[in-house]
Design a protein that fits this description.
alpha/beta; 2 domains
């Protein structure tokens, strides 16, 4: 994932931009005020992660305006929780201004765009697992986010604890991964099982899938928070995006330098 500020410096050094053009691009740092939104163009430099658009609750016009400005800055663009009706209302406006079109995935309700093919830059692979087929929308949100941010992703679906023999055949791939994102609803047991079999970080995502006593994912959330397996970190219910961001940073240890923090900066003298 190319840092837009680093790209700006390279373009200036190579003469592809004049000093005036460079200053124009820097004018709106650290944010750009659209009236209804303040776009954080400085976020990739600080954190190594781009600004991402949460689509739920926004109008088609607002989403198009935000996406247009992010694309003009060269950010990879991700819109999450974009329901099909709002996407349809956006028409072709999301793809305006660039030859490469974006991609909408109705399963995960995400729209993504990159100005160039994304080249994986992570230290390894991130595996995304889900306990059941009904968990796929959340798992796919995580997988698509990881891919857009420059990670190699392994997908493993429908390996929940009701049939653990389905998980066993995938253990070599899981043990080779640098981090795991594990999505489960119902009783939420899969992350604990997986964490007892691998030696990499496990990011648990409770899903809202389940019958009445699952309380919309609360039962799975509490089960994951009470995991007896070490190395399990838990994000919010249905938050595949948040889990992907954590896994991305685990898989990109050099993002510290990209965010302006020298490696070892937190070490004791």
């Amino acid at each position: 994932m190319q840092n837009p500020i680093a790209q700006l410096v390279e373009d200036l050094a190579a003469g592809r931009l004049s000093p005036e053009q460079g200053l124009a691009r820097l004018r709106d740092l650290p944010h750009e005020d659209l009236g209804f939104a303040r776009l954080d163009h400085h976020r990739p430099l600080r954190t190594g992660l781009p600004e991402v658009v949460y689509g739920a609750g926004k109008t088609a016009e607002q989403i198009v305006a935000i996406v247009t400005r992010l694309k003009q800055r060269g950010h990879p663009v991700l819109v999450t929780r974009l329901d099909p009706s709002t996407f349809a209302a956006c028409g072709r406006d999301l793809d305006a201004g660039h030859a490469l079109p974006g991609n909408y995935d109705p399963l995960s309700r995400t729209w993504r765009w990159a100005g160039a093919p994304v080249v994986p830059t992570g230290a390894g692979t991130v595996a995304v697992l889900c306990a059941g087929t009904s968990d796929l929308p959340v798992a796919e949100e995580a997988a698509i986010t990881l891919e857009l941010f420059g990670n190699r992703v392994e997908r493993v679906a429908d390996v929940g604890v009701a049939g653990l023999h389905r998980l066993v055949e995938h253990l070599p791939r899981l043990r080779a991964a640098r981090a795991l994102v594990v999505v489960a609803g119902m009783e939420g047991a899969l992350p604990s099982v997986v964490a007892g079999l691998v030696r990499c970080p496990v990011i648990a995502v409770p899903s809202s899938i389940g019958y009445g006593a699952s309380f919309g994912g609360l039962a799975a959330l509490l089960a994951m928070l009470n995991s007896c397996a070490p190395g399990v970190t838990v994000v919010n219910i249905d938050n595949g995006f948040g889990a992907a961001c954590a896994a991305h940073l685990i898989n990109h240890p050099d993002e510290r330098a990209a965010a302006g923090r020298p490696a070892g900066a937190d070490a004791a003298p």
